[in-house]
Write a structure and sequence with these properties.
InterPro entries: CDP-alcohol_PTase-I, HAD-like_sf, HAD-SF_hydro_IIA, HAD-SF_hydro_IIA_CECR5, HAD_sf
Largest sheet: 6 strands, parallel
Distance between the termini: 28 Å
Number of strands: 15
Shape: elongated
Bound molecules: magnesium ion
CATH topology of the domain at 111-165 and 178-273: Rossmann fold
Oligomer: single chain
Helix content: 25-40%
Order of helices and strands: HHEEEHEHEEHEHHEHEEEHEHHEHEEH
Strand content: 5-15%
Pfam family, one: Hydrolase_like
CATH class of the domain at 111-165 and 178-273: Alpha Beta
Strand order of the largest sheet: 5-4-1-13-14-15
Radius of gyration: 21 Å
Structural class: alpha/beta
Number of helices: 13
Length: 374
């Protein structure tokens, strides 16, 4: 039953990427024996800087496939980033990294929001962040998700600084024809939850509008009301992008929002943050890796695939990737690269990794030599 569900999901995800079902079956069934290990790769600062491959990442990933392109070692991408659907990210990563990546191999900061879709299925919810935040939520099953851009545009003068924002607004979050949230709905219905899907773009407007939503119980411009739930996809203070030093992340935005909110509202801001280093993110990664292995397993193989002896987390951020793997405990083994946030000579003093290497290619070489007998 579970297997059928997984297969069905993979099939539907695969269709969107124009891969054939048989290519995936072939890929996974050709795991000549089932490895008792798996790998989770962070993306930013490990495999990519911006959209440029680093640390021999293309060569490293190629080693996880057979010569004919079949998957040899189960692996996932475990990133706190996001802003686009998992299928789009898989397709983008496939073309940058030169291997065939499935949507189910991509676990983003906002992926756990899926689990809240039933609770807010038909409720008006606001989605903030770069990229296509409302599209992401809609694909997860939030039928009345609205981007904060669209939401703010429905309220005249909600952002008094808007006339001074001369950079203009580029519509990046298309509204599917099937979505039925009108301006009238937006202005009359209470927002039941706010989701910070990816790094917010216009902090001043977003802090203003979120304070309006949160302090009024979901109806800006009205009386004070009970705060609706607020969810963040991650709590990263900083992350490594293409600029030489770290950039402020969603955790920095959370601090800004919380500081302002707590100064203008008598009750402190309540929120939930997802993403690494929460141990449940690693538990989820483990079950996704199992699903990849179980897809074509039968009988005793199914049992054999059920337990991993070792799971490797390859990351660049000690407080996020390494701290998370340490908290998750057995069977996680942490590998810290020097291509991103961490640039130290020795191990990190507060969150020491099980192994420190220069690049992701070195990490994969280590794993494959260690697991040579699987
Ligand atoms: Mg990183």
């Amino acid at each position: 039953m579970v297997l059928r569900t997984i297969t069905k999901r993979l099939i539907s995800q695969t269709r969107s990427r124009k891969l054939t079902v048989s290519s995936i079956s072939r890929s996974l069934s050709q795991l000549h024996s089932r490895p008792s290990f798996g790998i989770a790769f962070d993306i930013d600062g490990v495999l990519l800087l911006g959209s440029t491959p680093i640390g021999g990442s293309q060569k490293a990933l190629a080693k996880l496939y057979e010569d004919n392109g079949a998957l040899k070692v189960p692996y996932v991408f475990l990133t706190n980033g996001g802003g686009v659907t998992e299928s789009k990210r898989a397709s983008d990563l496939s073309s940058i990294l030169g291997v065939d990546i499935l949507p189910s191999q991509v676990i983003q900061g906002h992926s756990p929001f899926k689990k809240l879709a039933k609770r807010f299925e038909n409720d008006l919810v606001v989605a903030a962040g770069k990229g296509e935040p409302a599209e992401v939520m809609y694909e997860y099953g939030f039928k009345s998700a609205v981007s904060i851009d669209e939401y703010a545009s429905c309220f005249d003068n909600i952002d008094p600084l808007a006339p001074y924002k001369i950079w203009g607004v580029r519509q990046t979050d298309p509204k599917p024809a099937s979505r039925k949230v009108s301006k009238g709905d937006i202005m009359s219905q209470r927002v039941k939850a706010a989701f910070i899907v990816s790094d917010p773009v216009d902090w001043s407007r977003d802090i203003q509008v979120l304070c309006d939503i949160l302090r009024t119980g979901g109806l800006p411009g009205r009386e004070v009301g009970k705060q609706p739930p607020l969810y963040f996809a991650n709590d990263d203070l900083e992350y490594q992008a293409a600029f030489p030093s770290e950039r402020l992340g969603m955790g920095a935005f959370r601090i800004a929002l919380e500081s302002v909110y707590n100064r203008i509202h008598p009750v402190g801001l309540e929120y939930t943050s997802y993403g690494k280093p929460n141990p449940f993110v690693f538990e989820n990664a483990e079950s996704v890796l199992k699903e990849l292995l179980l897809l074509n397993a039968t009988g005793s193989n199914k049992e054999a695939a059920h337990q991993f002896k070792k799971l490797y987390m390859v990351g660049d951020n000690p407080s996020v990737d390494i701290n998370g793997a340490r908290k998750a405990g057995h069977p996680w083994f942490s590998i810290l690269t020097r291509t991103g946030v961490f640039k130290g000579k020795d191990n990190h003093p507060k969150y020491p990794a099980d192994l420190v290497v220069d690049t992701v290619e070195e990490a994969v070489n280590f794993i494959l030599s260690k697991e040579a007998d699987w």
